[in-house]
Design the sequence.
C-alpha cells in the first residue's frame, strides 16, 4: 500500500515537474503587422521586415534604411531564399560626398535667371565642399544655416558612361528640387530622405553629353536639420545566387518572438526571432543578444539533406556606407564570432533622429561544433554555400574598408540534416550607451558580464531556459490580454510589446540609480521626453514598477540638481544618446508637470507606499503648486496633442493638471500629511466642478473652453478611474464615450474635431474609460483594422489617418506601451 502511494506521489511529482518545464501551447495571432519585429535590442539595433513576405523587401532599420539579413535553405543541393533580398550593388560614376569629397558652386540667395541650365554663369557664386548641411546633421562639408541653398555641380561623363543605364543618387532634408542640364529630375514636398536612387528618364538621357554636364539643386530647410548631396551611379554586374524562394505559410507576432513558417522541396522551416525583453529580469532585458531559431521537418516523410545560411553586412554598424569598417572572425568563450564595426569608433559621436549607430561592434555568434562562418566579398560566401552547403571559416584579407568600393558580407551556415534544428545569435556591443551630463554610461548588462563574449556565452548556455521563459510569457500575456480586452486587443498588445521596450536603453547614473532612457523615434530624436514616458508608462507600471520609476529618475534629478530651474517639469534631457540638458525648442509646462505627478501617483499605488513620493517631495510640491496656479485654464502653450496647432483653454490639458494635483493630494494622504492632502484634493475637486461648467456643450464636452461645437478625446480622465481619485463626475466620461461612438471613422476615433487623424495610444486610453467591454471593443476594433490593413508599411505608427488608414507621421515609438492601460486597469481593480 505504501509503495503504491509513493508511486502515485512520484508520478504526480514528475508530471508536475514536466508541466512546469514544458513549453505551453503557442498562441495564435491573425494580425498582419504593418512591419514585423525581428531583432529588437535598442533604438539602434532594431531590424524589421516591412512586408508581408519575408523575401519581398530587404530587412530594414525602423528609420527605413536597409539593415540587410539574408536567409537561405538548401534542400538536397538546391537553394531557396526565405529571408531578405539579394541587394543590388552599384558602382559610382560621380561620387557623393560620403564616398569622396566634391566641390560645387553655391548660393544662399535666390539666383536670378535660369540657374538650372548648363550654360548659366555661376562664377560669382561661392565655392564649397559637399555636403551642405546644418551643424547637427554633419560637420563635414559646408555649413548651411540659412533657409535655402542653391548648388551647382559640374560633372564629366565619358562616351562609355553614357552607353550604360545611369541612375541618380541623392540625399536631402527638407524640400528638394534637382535638375540635370536644366531638366527636372526630382521635386519633393516636405520630406527628408537619404541615398534615394532613381533611374534617369529618356529626356535626361538625351540631354546628357560627353564631357561637361551640370547637376543643379535647390533645398529649402523648413525646420530642424538640413542636408544636400548627390551623385551618379550604375548597377554592378553581380550574379544572383538565390533567385528561387521558399513558400511562406505563416507570419505572426507574439510579445517576445516573431514566428515564420516556410515550405520548400518537401521540407518545412520554422524560423523564430526572439529578443528576450522580459521586464521582470533586467539583466535579460538589457543583454544585447537576440536569438534566431530554425527548425526543419520533412513534409513528405523522405530523408532530406538540409543546410541553412544567413548573411548580413557591416551596414548594421554604420550610419552611412562610406564609413571605413573592419571585420574579424575568431573564437572565444566556446563560441565562434564574426565582429564588425567602423575603424573610427567615435563613441557617442552622433545624436539625432534619423541616424544609426557607428560606434561599437555588431556580432554574429554560434557554436563552432555546429556552425561555420566567412567574411568575404558580395559573391564568394553565397557561391560557396550554393555549391557546397557549407562555409569554410575564413576571412578575405583583400576586402576594401569602404563598402562603396566593395561590399563585405558576414555569413553563417549550419548543417541541419541530422539535428533538424539550431540557433544563431546576433547582438551589438555599443561600449557606451548614453552620455548623462558629461558622464558616459554603459548599459547595465555590463554589471553581470566581463565582456560581450561572456554575455553571448551566457546567452548560449541559457538558450533553452530563456526560450521557455519567453514562450510562457507569450502565452500568459496573450491569455491575459484576451481576457481583458478581446482577441484583437491582445494581438495589438503583442505587436506593441517589443517596439515599446526597444525604443529605450537601460543604464545607471554614478549614484547607482536606474535610468531608462527613451528615444523619441521619428519625431525629433529627443532623449527622455516626458510626453513619451507618459503614454508608454502603463506597460511598465503593469510589468515592473522599477522601470516606470527609471523613466522619470533623470527628469526628477534634472530639477533637484538645480540644472533645470523652472517651476515645472522639463520636456526632455537632450537629443539621443546625449542627455546633457533639454534641447527641445519649447516648454510644455502644464503637460509635463501633470504627466510626472500622475505617473508618480501610479508608482505609489503600485507599491502601496508613498516612500517614492517622500524622496522627491520638494520637487513634486513645486510642480503641484505650478498646476494649482496655471492648470485649470491653461494659457496658449505646447502640449502633446498640438499637431493642428497649439491653443489656450485646452480642456483635456486642464484635466491632466487637475488629476496631477489630485495625485499629489493622494500621495500626501498616503504619507500621513492630512492637511496637505485635504488642501490639494479639495482644490482638485473644486477645479473639476468648474471644468464641467466651463466645458459642457450639450451631449459632449468641448475641445477648448471657448469653442462651442468642438470636441476632443478626454483620455486623461482615465486616471481618475484607475487611481480611484474620484475627482470628476463619472457621468462625464460616459457621456463622452457615447458621443465618441457617433464620430469615429473606419480606422478609429479622431484625436479631436479639427482633423481626421488620431493617436492610437490615446484611443486605447479613451476606450478604457468605457463602463462596459462592448464599448471598449467598439473603439479598439478600428485600431486593429488600421494595423491590419494600412498600406504604410513601417513599425507601428501611433499617428494615423482614420479615413484612409495611412500613417501621418511617427513610427517605432514607445508610446504604444500605452495600449496596456486596459490591462493596468485590471491590476488596480
Sequence:
Amino acid at each position: 500500500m505504501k509503495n503504491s502511494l509513493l508511486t502515485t506521489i512520484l508520478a504526480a511529482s514528475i508530471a508536475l515537474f514536466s508541466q512546469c518545464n514544458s513549453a505551453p501551447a503557442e498562441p495564435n495571432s491573425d494580425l498582419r503587422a504593418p512591419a514585423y519585429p525581428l531583432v529588437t535590442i535598442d533604438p539602434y539595433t532594431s531590424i524589421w521586415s516591412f512586408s508581408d513576405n519575408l523575401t519581398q523587401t530587404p530587412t530594414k532599420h525602423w528609420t527605413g534604411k536597409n539593415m540587410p539579413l539574408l536567409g537561405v535553405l538548401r534542400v538536397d543541393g538546391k537553394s531557396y531564399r526565405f529571408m531578405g533580398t539579394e541587394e543590388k550593388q552599384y558602382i559610382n560614376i560621380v561620387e557623393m560626398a560620403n564616398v569622396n569629397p566634391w566641390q560645387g558652386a553655391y548660393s544662399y540667395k535666390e539666383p536670378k535667371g535660369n540657374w538650372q541650365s548648363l550654360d548659366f554663369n555661376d562664377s560669382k557664386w561661392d565655392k564649397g565642399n559637399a555636403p551642405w548641411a546644418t551643424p547637427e546633421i554633419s560637420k563635414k562639408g559646408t555649413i548651411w544655416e540659412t533657409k535655402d541653398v542653391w548648388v551647382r555641380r559640374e560633372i564629366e561623363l565619358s562616351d562609355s558612361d553614357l552607353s550604360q543605364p545611369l541612375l541618380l543618387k541623392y540625399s536631402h532634408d527638407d524640400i528638394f528640387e534637382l535638375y540635370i542640364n536644366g531638366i527636372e529630375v526630382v521635386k519633393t514636398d516636405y520630406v527628408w530622405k537619404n541615398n534615394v536612387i532613381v533611374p534617369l528618364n529618356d529626356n535626361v538621357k538625351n540631354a546628357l553629353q560627353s564631357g561637361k554636364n551640370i547637376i543643379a539643386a535647390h533645398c529649402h530647410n523648413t525646420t530642424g536639420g538640413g542636408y544636400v548631396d548627390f551623385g551618379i551611379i550604375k548597377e554592378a554586374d553581380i550574379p544572383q545566387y538565390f533567385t528561387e524562394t521558399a513558400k511562406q505559410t505563416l507570419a505572426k507576432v507574439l510579445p517576445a518572438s516573431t514566428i515564420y513558417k516556410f515550405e520548400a522541396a518537401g521540407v518545412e522551416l520554422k524560423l523564430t526571432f526572439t529578443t528576450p525583453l522580459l521586464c521582470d529580469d533586467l539583466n535579460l532585458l538589457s543583454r544585447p543578444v537576440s536569438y534566431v531559431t530554425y527548425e526543419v521537418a520533412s513534409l513528405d516523410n523522405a530523408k532530406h539533406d538540409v543546410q541553412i545560411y544567413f548573411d548580413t553586412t557591416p551596414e548594421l554598424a554604420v550610419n552611412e556606407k562610406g564609413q571605413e569598417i573592419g571585420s574579424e572572425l575568431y573564437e572565444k568563450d566556446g563560441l565562434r564570432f564574426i565582429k564588425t564595426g567602423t575603424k573610427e569608433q567615435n563613441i557617442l559621436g552622433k545624436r539625432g533622429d534619423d541616424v544609426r549607430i557607428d560606434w561599437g561592434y555588431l556580432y554574429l555568434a554560434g557554436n563552432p561544433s555546429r556552425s561555420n562562418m566567412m567574411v568575404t566579398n558580395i559573391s564568394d560566401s553565397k557561391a560557396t554555400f550554393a555549391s557546397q552547403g557549407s562555409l569554410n571559416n575564413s576571412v578575405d584579407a583583400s576586402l576594401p574598408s569602404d563598402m562603396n568600393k566593395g561590399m563585405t558580407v558576414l555569413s553563417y551556415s549550419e548543417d541541419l540534416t541530422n539535428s533538424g534544428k539550431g540557433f544563431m545569435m546576433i547582438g551589438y556591443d555599443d561600449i557606451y550607451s548614453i552620455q548623462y551630463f558629461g558622464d558616459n554610461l554603459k548599459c547595465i548588462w555590463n554589471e553581470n558580464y566581463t565582456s560581450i563574449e561572456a554575455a553571448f556565452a551566457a546567452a548560449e548556455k541559457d538558450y533553452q531556459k530563456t526560450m521557455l521563459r519567453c514562450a510562457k510569457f507569450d502565452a500568459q500575456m496573450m491569455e491575459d490580454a484576451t481576457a481583458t480586452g478581446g482577441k484583437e486587443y491582445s494581438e495589438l498588445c503583442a505587436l506593441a510589446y517589443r517596439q515599446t521596450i526597444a525604443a529605450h536603453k537601460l543604464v545607471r547614473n554614478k549614484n547607482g540609480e536606474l535610468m531608462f532612457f527613451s528615444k523619441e523615434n521619428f519625431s525629433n530624436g529627443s532623449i527622455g521626453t516626458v510626453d513619451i514616458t507618459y503614454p508608454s508608462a502603463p506597460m511598465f507600471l503593469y510589468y515592473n514598477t522599477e522601470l516606470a520609476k527609471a523613466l522619470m529618475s533623470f527628469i526628477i534629478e534634472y530639477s533637484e540638481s538645480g540644472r533645470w530651474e523652472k517651476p515645472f517639469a522639463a520636456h526632455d534631457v537632450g537629443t539621443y544618446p546625449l542627455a546633457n540638458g533639454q534641447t527641445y525648442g519649447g516648454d510644455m509646462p502644464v503637460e509635463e508637470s501633470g504627466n510626472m505627478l500622475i505617473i508618480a501617483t501610479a508608482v505609489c499605488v503600485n507599491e502601496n507606499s508613498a516612500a517614492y513620493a517622500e524622496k522627491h517631495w520638494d520637487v513634486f510640491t513645486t510642480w503641484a503648486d505650478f498646476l494649482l496656479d496655471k492648470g485649470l485654464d491653461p494659457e496658449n502653450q505646447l502640449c502633446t496633442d498640438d499637431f493642428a496647432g497649439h491653443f489656450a483653454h485646452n480642456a483635456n490639458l486642464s484635466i491632466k493638471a487637475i488629476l496631477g494635483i489630485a495625485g499629489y493630494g493622494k500621495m500626501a494622504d498616503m504619507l500621513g500629511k492630512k492637511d496637505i492632502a485635504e488642501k490639494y484634493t479639495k482644490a482638485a475637486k473644486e477645479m473639476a466642478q468648474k471644468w464641467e461648467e466651463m466645458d459642457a456643450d450639450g451631449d459632449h464636452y468641448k475641445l477648448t473652453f471657448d469653442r462651442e461645437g468642438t470636441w476632443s478625446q478626454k483620455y486623461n480622465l482615465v486616471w481618475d478611474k484607475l487611481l480611484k481619485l474620484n475627482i470628476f463626475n463619472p457621468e462625464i466620461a460616459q457621456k463622452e464615450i457615447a458621443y465618441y461612438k457617433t464620430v469615429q471613422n473606419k480606422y478609429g476615433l479622431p484625436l479631436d474635431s479639427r482633423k481626421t487623424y488620431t493617436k492610437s495610444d490615446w484611443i486605447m486610453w479613451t476606450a478604457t474609460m468605457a463602463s462596459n467591454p462592448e464599448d471598449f471593443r467598439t473603439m479598439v476594433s478600428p485600431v486593429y483594422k488600421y494595423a491590419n490593413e494600412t498600406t504604410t508599411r513601417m513599425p507601428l505608427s501611433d499617428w494615423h489617418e482614420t479615413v484612409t488608414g495611412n500613417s501621418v507621421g511617427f513610427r517605432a515609438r514607445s508610446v504604444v506601451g500605452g495600449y496596456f492601460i486596459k490591462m493596468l486597469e485590471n491590476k488596480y481593480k
About this structure: Confidence is low (pLDDT under 50) at residues 13-18.
